[in-house]
Protein backbone atom coordinates (compact mmCIF):
# COMPACT_ATOMS: atom_id res chain seq x y z
CA UNK A 1 0.00 0.00 0.00
CA UNK A 2 1.36 3.37 -0.98
CA UNK A 3 1.47 6.17 1.58
CA UNK A 4 -0.83 8.13 -0.71
CA UNK A 5 -3.43 5.34 -0.39
CA UNK A 6 -3.06 5.15 3.35
CA UNK A 7 -3.81 8.87 3.61
CA UNK A 8 -7.07 8.30 1.70
CA UNK A 9 -8.14 5.76 4.30
CA UNK A 10 -7.13 7.94 7.24
CA UNK A 11 -8.94 10.92 5.75
CA UNK A 12 -12.12 8.88 5.25
CA UNK A 13 -11.96 7.98 8.95
CA UNK A 14 -11.49 11.62 10.07
CA UNK A 15 -15.04 12.01 11.27
CA UNK A 16 -14.59 9.66 14.20
CA UNK A 17 -13.76 11.68 17.32
CA UNK A 18 -12.23 10.54 20.58
CA UNK A 19 -12.39 12.43 23.87
CA UNK A 20 -9.45 14.85 24.25
CA UNK A 21 -6.79 13.31 26.45
CA UNK A 22 -6.71 16.14 29.02
CA UNK A 23 -10.42 15.77 29.71
CA UNK A 24 -10.16 11.98 29.77
CA UNK A 25 -7.49 12.20 32.50
CA UNK A 26 -9.81 14.16 34.79
CA UNK A 27 -12.55 11.62 34.18
CA UNK A 28 -10.13 8.78 34.95
CA UNK A 29 -9.08 10.39 38.24
CA UNK A 30 -12.74 10.79 39.19
CA UNK A 31 -13.40 7.10 38.56
CA UNK A 32 -10.18 6.09 40.35
CA UNK A 33 -11.12 8.13 43.45
CA UNK A 34 -14.57 6.53 43.47
CA UNK A 35 -13.05 3.03 43.28
CA UNK A 36 -10.50 3.78 46.00
CA UNK A 37 -13.22 5.29 48.22
CA UNK A 38 -15.45 2.24 47.72
CA UNK A 39 -12.66 -0.19 48.62
CA UNK A 40 -11.62 1.94 51.60
CA UNK A 41 -15.11 2.34 53.02
CA UNK A 42 -16.10 -1.31 52.61
CA UNK A 43 -12.89 -2.59 54.24
CA UNK A 44 -11.06 -0.57 56.90
CA UNK A 45 -12.86 2.82 56.83
CA UNK A 46 -11.78 5.97 58.68
CA UNK A 47 -10.59 5.80 62.28
CA UNK A 48 -13.33 6.49 64.87
CA UNK A 49 -11.60 9.52 66.37
CA UNK A 50 -11.08 11.24 63.03
CA UNK A 51 -12.76 14.50 64.10
CA UNK A 52 -10.45 15.24 67.07
CA UNK A 53 -7.49 13.85 65.09
CA UNK A 54 -8.03 16.52 62.48
CA UNK A 55 -6.89 19.09 65.01
CA UNK A 56 -3.44 17.55 65.31
CA UNK A 57 -0.51 18.55 63.12
CA UNK A 58 0.82 15.02 62.69
CA UNK A 59 -2.45 13.61 61.45
CA UNK A 60 -2.99 16.44 58.98
CA UNK A 61 0.62 16.35 57.78
CA UNK A 62 0.00 12.88 56.32
CA UNK A 63 -2.52 14.34 53.87
CA UNK A 64 -0.10 17.08 52.88
CA UNK A 65 2.45 14.40 51.86
CA UNK A 66 0.06 12.11 50.06
CA UNK A 67 -1.84 14.86 48.26
CA UNK A 68 1.44 16.52 47.22
CA UNK A 69 2.51 13.18 45.74
CA UNK A 70 -0.80 12.63 43.97
CA UNK A 71 -0.96 16.16 42.56
CA UNK A 72 2.62 16.17 41.26
CA UNK A 73 2.28 12.66 39.81
CA UNK A 74 -0.96 13.68 38.09
CA UNK A 75 0.70 16.67 36.42
CA UNK A 76 3.64 14.51 35.32
CA UNK A 77 1.62 11.60 33.98
CA UNK A 78 -0.52 13.94 31.89
CA UNK A 79 2.60 15.39 30.30
CA UNK A 80 4.16 11.94 29.82
CA UNK A 81 1.10 10.67 27.98
CA UNK A 82 1.21 13.49 25.40
CA UNK A 83 4.03 13.12 22.85
CA UNK A 84 6.31 16.13 22.67
CA UNK A 85 4.93 17.75 25.82
CA UNK A 86 7.58 19.24 28.08
CA UNK A 87 8.01 17.23 31.28
CA UNK A 88 10.79 19.29 32.91
CA UNK A 89 8.60 21.39 35.20
CA UNK A 90 6.37 18.49 36.20
CA UNK A 91 9.46 16.35 36.81
CA UNK A 92 10.92 19.01 39.12
CA UNK A 93 7.68 19.13 41.12
CA UNK A 94 8.04 15.42 41.91
CA UNK A 95 10.61 16.41 44.51
CA UNK A 96 7.92 18.23 46.56
CA UNK A 97 6.41 15.24 48.38
CA UNK A 98 9.75 13.58 49.34
CA UNK A 99 11.13 16.96 50.44
CA UNK A 100 8.13 17.57 52.70
CA UNK A 101 8.51 14.10 54.22
CA UNK A 102 12.22 14.62 54.86
CA UNK A 103 11.51 17.97 56.49
CA UNK A 104 8.85 16.43 58.72
CA UNK A 105 11.17 13.56 59.68
CA UNK A 106 13.89 16.03 60.73
CA UNK A 107 11.40 18.02 62.81
CA UNK A 108 10.08 14.81 64.40
CA UNK A 109 13.61 13.71 65.33
CA UNK A 110 14.22 17.09 66.94
CA UNK A 111 10.97 17.05 68.94
CA UNK A 112 10.75 13.41 70.00
CA UNK A 113 13.25 11.97 72.52
CA UNK A 114 15.62 9.44 70.99
CA UNK A 115 14.25 6.62 73.16
CA UNK A 116 10.87 6.87 71.39
CA UNK A 117 12.19 6.90 67.82
CA UNK A 118 12.00 3.14 67.40
CA UNK A 119 8.48 2.89 68.80
CA UNK A 120 7.22 5.63 66.51
CA UNK A 121 8.88 4.16 63.46
CA UNK A 122 7.53 0.65 63.97
CA UNK A 123 4.09 1.87 65.12
CA UNK A 124 1.29 -0.66 65.37
CA UNK A 125 -0.12 -0.82 61.84
CA UNK A 126 2.73 -1.56 59.51
CA UNK A 127 1.27 -4.78 58.11
CA UNK A 128 -2.14 -3.15 57.56
CA UNK A 129 -0.40 -0.20 55.95
CA UNK A 130 1.66 -2.32 53.61
CA UNK A 131 -1.30 -4.44 52.55
CA UNK A 132 -4.07 -1.84 52.34
CA UNK A 133 -2.27 0.90 50.42
CA UNK A 134 -1.61 -1.55 47.54
CA UNK A 135 -5.11 -3.00 47.88
CA UNK A 136 -6.79 0.43 47.67
CA UNK A 137 -4.38 1.51 44.93
CA UNK A 138 -4.59 -1.48 42.60
CA UNK A 139 -7.93 -0.45 41.01
CA UNK A 140 -6.78 3.13 40.36
CA UNK A 141 -3.49 1.79 38.95
CA UNK A 142 -5.39 -0.35 36.45
CA UNK A 143 -7.41 2.71 35.40
CA UNK A 144 -4.28 4.82 34.98
CA UNK A 145 -2.50 2.13 32.92
CA UNK A 146 -5.61 1.98 30.75
CA UNK A 147 -5.36 5.75 30.33
CA UNK A 148 -1.73 5.41 29.25
CA UNK A 149 -2.89 3.03 26.53
CA UNK A 150 -5.46 5.63 25.51
CA UNK A 151 -2.70 8.25 25.47
CA UNK A 152 0.63 7.98 23.68
CA UNK A 153 3.51 7.81 26.18
CA UNK A 154 6.87 7.71 24.41
CA UNK A 155 8.45 6.41 27.63
CA UNK A 156 6.01 3.66 28.67
CA UNK A 157 8.01 2.25 31.59
CA UNK A 158 8.54 5.65 33.21
CA UNK A 159 4.90 6.58 32.58
CA UNK A 160 3.82 3.28 34.15
CA UNK A 161 5.94 3.98 37.23
CA UNK A 162 4.35 7.42 37.57
CA UNK A 163 0.93 5.76 37.26
CA UNK A 164 1.99 3.68 40.28
CA UNK A 165 3.03 6.81 42.19
CA UNK A 166 -0.29 8.47 41.40
CA UNK A 167 -2.24 5.39 42.48
CA UNK A 168 -0.03 5.19 45.58
CA UNK A 169 -0.59 8.84 46.50
CA UNK A 170 -4.32 8.41 46.10
CA UNK A 171 -4.48 5.15 48.09
CA UNK A 172 -2.25 6.54 50.84
CA UNK A 173 -4.55 9.55 51.20
CA UNK A 174 -7.45 7.23 52.02
CA UNK A 175 -5.35 4.93 54.16
CA UNK A 176 -4.04 7.91 56.18
CA UNK A 177 -7.60 8.57 57.35
CA UNK A 178 -7.66 5.08 58.88
CA UNK A 179 -4.21 4.79 60.41
CA UNK A 180 -3.40 5.71 64.04
CA UNK A 181 0.33 5.96 63.38
CA UNK A 182 0.72 9.64 62.58
CA UNK A 183 4.46 10.01 63.13
CA UNK A 184 6.42 11.12 60.06
CA UNK A 185 8.88 8.34 60.95
CA UNK A 186 6.16 5.75 60.34
CA UNK A 187 4.90 7.47 57.20
CA UNK A 188 8.37 7.88 55.71
CA UNK A 189 9.07 4.17 56.14
CA UNK A 190 5.94 2.10 55.57
CA UNK A 191 4.00 4.37 53.24
CA UNK A 192 7.12 4.61 51.09
CA UNK A 193 7.50 0.83 50.88
CA UNK A 194 3.82 0.37 50.01
CA UNK A 195 3.90 3.11 47.36
CA UNK A 196 7.18 1.78 45.95
CA UNK A 197 5.46 -1.57 45.43
CA UNK A 198 2.70 0.08 43.39
CA UNK A 199 5.34 2.04 41.47
CA UNK A 200 7.17 -1.15 40.56
CA UNK A 201 3.90 -2.77 39.53
CA UNK A 202 3.12 0.27 37.40
CA UNK A 203 6.50 0.15 35.68
CA UNK A 204 6.02 -3.54 34.86
CA UNK A 205 2.50 -2.78 33.62
CA UNK A 206 3.88 0.03 31.46
CA UNK A 207 6.42 -2.32 29.96
CA UNK A 208 3.93 -5.09 29.24
CA UNK A 209 0.65 -3.36 28.40
CA UNK A 210 1.40 0.15 27.21
CA UNK A 211 2.25 -0.42 23.55
CA UNK A 212 0.97 1.71 20.72
CA UNK B 1 10.76 27.67 7.57
CA UNK B 2 10.00 25.74 10.73
CA UNK B 3 7.97 28.62 12.17
CA UNK B 4 5.87 28.73 9.01
CA UNK B 5 5.44 24.93 9.04
CA UNK B 6 4.35 25.09 12.65
CA UNK B 7 1.72 27.76 12.10
CA UNK B 8 0.33 26.17 8.95
CA UNK B 9 0.29 22.62 10.27
CA UNK B 10 -1.33 23.48 13.58
CA UNK B 11 -3.91 25.53 11.67
CA UNK B 12 -4.64 22.57 9.40
CA UNK B 13 -4.96 20.11 12.27
CA UNK B 14 -7.24 22.47 14.20
CA UNK B 15 -9.44 22.79 11.11
CA UNK B 16 -9.37 19.01 10.66
CA UNK B 17 -10.46 18.42 14.25
CA UNK B 18 -13.30 20.90 13.65
CA UNK B 19 -14.48 18.61 10.83
CA UNK B 20 -12.68 19.89 7.69
CA UNK B 21 -11.69 16.69 5.83
CA UNK B 22 -9.81 18.57 3.13
CA UNK B 23 -7.62 20.20 5.79
CA UNK B 24 -6.96 16.78 7.28
CA UNK B 25 -5.74 15.34 3.96
CA UNK B 26 -3.50 18.41 3.52
CA UNK B 27 -2.17 17.99 7.02
CA UNK B 28 -1.37 14.31 6.48
CA UNK B 29 0.42 14.98 3.18
CA UNK B 30 2.57 17.69 4.75
CA UNK B 31 3.35 15.51 7.76
CA UNK B 32 4.24 12.58 5.49
CA UNK B 33 6.80 14.75 3.70
CA UNK B 34 8.31 15.98 6.96
CA UNK B 35 8.51 12.51 8.49
CA UNK B 36 9.94 11.08 5.26
CA UNK B 37 12.79 13.60 5.42
CA UNK B 38 13.30 12.88 9.11
CA UNK B 39 13.35 9.09 8.64
CA UNK B 40 15.75 9.31 5.68
CA UNK B 41 18.13 11.46 7.72
CA UNK B 42 18.01 9.10 10.69
CA UNK B 43 18.25 5.78 8.83
CA UNK B 44 21.83 5.89 7.62
CA UNK B 45 22.34 2.20 7.05
CA UNK B 46 19.70 0.04 5.39
CA UNK B 47 17.43 -2.50 6.95
CA UNK B 48 14.61 -0.20 7.95
CA UNK B 49 12.58 1.25 5.08
CA UNK B 50 11.90 4.97 5.73
CA UNK B 51 8.50 4.65 4.05
CA UNK B 52 7.41 2.03 6.61
CA UNK B 53 8.25 4.51 9.35
CA UNK B 54 6.28 7.21 7.51
CA UNK B 55 3.22 4.97 7.28
CA UNK B 56 3.40 3.80 10.87
CA UNK B 57 3.80 7.38 12.07
CA UNK B 58 0.79 8.55 10.04
CA UNK B 59 -1.32 5.75 11.50
CA UNK B 60 -0.19 6.54 15.03
CA UNK B 61 -0.88 10.24 14.49
CA UNK B 62 -4.32 9.34 13.23
CA UNK B 63 -5.36 7.04 16.06
CA UNK B 64 -3.72 9.26 18.70
CA UNK B 65 -4.79 12.66 17.43
CA UNK B 66 -6.79 13.22 20.62
CA UNK B 67 -3.44 13.42 22.47
CA UNK B 68 -2.65 16.75 20.79
CA UNK B 69 -3.77 19.84 22.70
CA UNK B 70 -5.01 22.43 20.17
CA UNK B 71 -3.14 25.17 22.04
CA UNK B 72 0.18 23.26 21.96
CA UNK B 73 2.73 23.35 19.11
CA UNK B 74 2.16 20.54 16.63
CA UNK B 75 5.70 19.87 15.33
CA UNK B 76 7.16 18.62 18.64
CA UNK B 77 4.15 16.32 18.86
CA UNK B 78 4.64 14.99 15.32
CA UNK B 79 8.37 14.46 15.75
CA UNK B 80 7.98 12.78 19.14
CA UNK B 81 5.62 10.25 17.54
CA UNK B 82 7.92 9.81 14.52
CA UNK B 83 10.91 9.23 16.78
CA UNK B 84 8.98 6.67 18.84
CA UNK B 85 7.96 4.81 15.68
CA UNK B 86 11.47 4.96 14.26
CA UNK B 87 12.96 3.41 17.42
CA UNK B 88 10.18 0.82 17.28
CA UNK B 89 11.13 -0.04 13.69
CA UNK B 90 14.78 -0.51 14.64
CA UNK B 91 13.84 -2.63 17.63
CA UNK B 92 11.55 -4.79 15.54
CA UNK B 93 14.20 -5.29 12.89
CA UNK B 94 16.62 -6.45 15.57
CA UNK B 95 14.13 -9.13 16.49
CA UNK B 96 13.18 -10.10 12.99
CA UNK B 97 16.74 -10.99 12.05
CA UNK B 98 16.59 -13.89 14.49
CA UNK B 99 13.32 -15.16 13.04
CA UNK B 100 14.38 -14.91 9.44
CA UNK B 101 16.38 -18.15 9.39
CA UNK B 102 13.17 -20.14 9.84
CA UNK B 103 11.34 -18.11 7.26
CA UNK B 104 13.90 -18.89 4.58
CA UNK B 105 12.85 -22.54 4.59
CA UNK B 106 9.21 -21.55 4.04
CA UNK B 107 10.18 -19.18 1.30
CA UNK B 108 11.85 -22.00 -0.59
CA UNK B 109 8.82 -24.20 -0.12
CA UNK B 110 6.38 -21.51 -1.26
CA UNK B 111 7.82 -19.35 -4.01
CA UNK B 112 4.64 -17.21 -4.21
CA UNK B 113 5.40 -15.50 -0.94
CA UNK B 114 8.31 -13.76 -2.60
CA UNK B 115 6.03 -11.85 -4.91
CA UNK B 116 4.15 -10.30 -1.98
CA UNK B 117 5.12 -6.69 -1.49
CA UNK B 118 7.43 -6.11 1.43
CA UNK B 119 5.55 -3.18 2.98
CA UNK B 120 4.87 -3.76 6.68
CA UNK B 121 1.40 -2.29 6.33
CA UNK B 122 0.42 -4.91 3.75
CA UNK B 123 1.24 -7.66 6.21
CA UNK B 124 -0.90 -5.91 8.81
CA UNK B 125 -3.72 -5.47 6.31
CA UNK B 126 -3.65 -9.16 5.47
CA UNK B 127 -4.09 -9.99 9.15
CA UNK B 128 -7.44 -8.17 9.33
CA UNK B 129 -10.83 -9.92 9.34
CA UNK B 130 -12.17 -10.14 5.73
CA UNK B 131 -14.80 -7.36 6.00
CA UNK B 132 -12.39 -4.83 7.49
CA UNK B 133 -9.73 -5.80 4.98
CA UNK B 134 -11.99 -5.32 1.97
CA UNK B 135 -13.27 -1.97 3.30
CA UNK B 136 -9.78 -0.63 4.07
CA UNK B 137 -8.33 -1.70 0.74
CA UNK B 138 -11.37 -0.48 -1.23
CA UNK B 139 -10.94 3.02 0.21
CA UNK B 140 -7.15 3.13 0.20
CA UNK B 141 -5.73 1.01 -2.64
CA UNK B 142 -8.78 1.25 -4.96
CA UNK B 143 -9.49 4.86 -4.01
CA UNK B 144 -13.25 4.46 -3.59
CA UNK B 145 -15.32 6.73 -1.38
CA UNK B 146 -17.28 5.53 1.64
CA UNK B 147 -20.48 5.61 -0.43
CA UNK B 148 -18.99 3.67 -3.35
CA UNK B 149 -17.57 1.09 -0.99
CA UNK B 150 -20.96 0.68 0.67
CA UNK B 151 -22.65 0.08 -2.68
CA UNK B 152 -19.94 -2.28 -3.88
CA UNK B 153 -20.06 -4.42 -0.73
CA UNK B 154 -23.82 -4.13 -0.32
CA UNK B 155 -23.72 -2.74 3.23
CA UNK B 156 -24.66 0.59 4.82
CA UNK B 157 -22.32 3.59 4.93
CA UNK B 158 -22.32 3.40 8.70
CA UNK B 159 -21.13 -0.21 8.53
CA UNK B 160 -18.34 0.86 6.16
CA UNK B 161 -17.28 3.64 8.52
CA UNK B 162 -17.25 1.26 11.48
CA UNK B 163 -15.21 -1.36 9.60
CA UNK B 164 -12.78 1.27 8.35
CA UNK B 165 -12.31 2.69 11.84
CA UNK B 166 -11.84 -0.71 13.44
CA UNK B 167 -9.55 -1.88 10.66
CA UNK B 168 -7.25 1.14 10.95
CA UNK B 169 -7.19 0.86 14.73
CA UNK B 170 -6.30 -2.83 14.44
CA UNK B 171 -3.44 -2.13 12.02
CA UNK B 172 -2.08 0.58 14.33
CA UNK B 173 -2.35 -1.75 17.30
CA UNK B 174 -0.56 -4.51 15.44
CA UNK B 175 2.38 -2.24 14.80
CA UNK B 176 2.49 -1.41 18.50
CA UNK B 177 2.43 -5.01 19.61
CA UNK B 178 5.11 -6.43 17.36
Q: What would a concise description of this structure say?
A:
With 212 residues, chain A is mainly α. Chain A has helices at residues 3-12, 21-42, 50-53, 57-80, 88-93, 96-111, 114-122, 126-150, 156-176, 184-209. Chain B is built from eight helices and no strands.
Notes on the protein architecture:
The complex is a heterodimer of chains A (212) and B (178). By secondary structure, chain A is mainly α. Chain A has one domain (20-44, 58-209). Chain A is elongated. Chain A contains 10 helices and no strands. Chain A has helices at 3-12, 21-42, 50-53, 57-80, 88-93, 96-111, 114-122, 126-150, 156-176, 184-209. By secondary structure, chain B is an all-alpha fold. Chain B contains 8 helices and no strands. Chain B has helices at residues 2-17, 21-42, 50-63, 75-109, 120-126, 130-139, 146-153, 157-177. In chain B, helix 1 crosses helix 2 (21-42) and helix 2 runs antiparallel to helix 3 (50-63). The radius of gyration of chain B is 18 Å and the shape is globular. Chain B starts with a helix and ends with a helix. Mean pLDDT of chain B is 85; it is low at 97-117. Classes of the chains: A mainly alpha (212), B mainly alpha (178). At the A-B interface, helix 1 and helix 2 of A face helix 2, helix 3, helix 4, helix 5 and helix 6 of B.
Q: Which terms summarize this structure?
A:
heterodimer, A: 212 residues, mainly alpha, B: 178 residues, Rna Polymerase Sigma Factor, Chain: A, Arc Repressor Mutant, subunit A, 2 domains
Question: How would the blueprint of this fold be written?
Answer:
The complex is a heterodimer of chains A (212) and B (178).
Chain A: H1 3-12, H2 21-42, H3 50-53, H4 57-80, H5 88-93, H6 96-111, H7 114-122, H8 126-150, H9 156-176, H10 184-209
Chain B: H1 2-17, H2 21-42, H3 50-63, H4 75-109, H5 120-126, H6 130-139, H7 146-153, H8 157-177
Number of helices of chain A: 10
Q: What share of the residues of chain A lie within helices?
A: over 70%
Number of strands of chain A: 0
In sequence order, what are the helices and strands of chain A, one letter per element? HHHHHHHHHH
Helix content of chain B: over 70%
Kindly report the oligomeric state of this protein: heterodimer
Largest sheet of chain B: none
Low-confidence stretches of chain B: 97-117
What characteristic shape of chain A results from the CA principal axes?
A: elongated
Distance between the termini of chain B: 36 Å
CATH topology of the largest domain in chain B: Rna Polymerase Sigma Factor, Chain: A
Mean pLDDT across residues of chain A: 96
Strand content of chain B: under 5%
In DSSP terms (H or I, runs of 4 or more residues), the helix count of chain B works out at: 8
Which CATH class of the largest domain in chain B applies here? Mainly Alpha
Number of domains of chain A: 1
The largest sheet of chain A, given as strand count, sense and whether it forms a barrel, is:
none
- Global outline of chain B: globular
Q: What class would the helix/strand composition of chain A place it in?
A: mainly alpha
Cα radius of gyration of chain B in angstroms: 18 Å
Amino acid sequence: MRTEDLIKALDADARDKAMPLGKAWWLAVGVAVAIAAAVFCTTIGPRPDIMPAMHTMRFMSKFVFTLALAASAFALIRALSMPGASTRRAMAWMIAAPALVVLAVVLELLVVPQADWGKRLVGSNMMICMSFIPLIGIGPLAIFLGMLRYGAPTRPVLAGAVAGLLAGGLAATFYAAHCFDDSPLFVATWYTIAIAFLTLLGAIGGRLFVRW
Amino acid sequence: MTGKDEAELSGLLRAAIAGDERAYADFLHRVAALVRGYARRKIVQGGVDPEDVVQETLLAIHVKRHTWRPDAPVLPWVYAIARFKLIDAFRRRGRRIEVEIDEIAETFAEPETETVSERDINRALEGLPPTQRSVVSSISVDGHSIGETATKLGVSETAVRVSLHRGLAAIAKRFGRQ
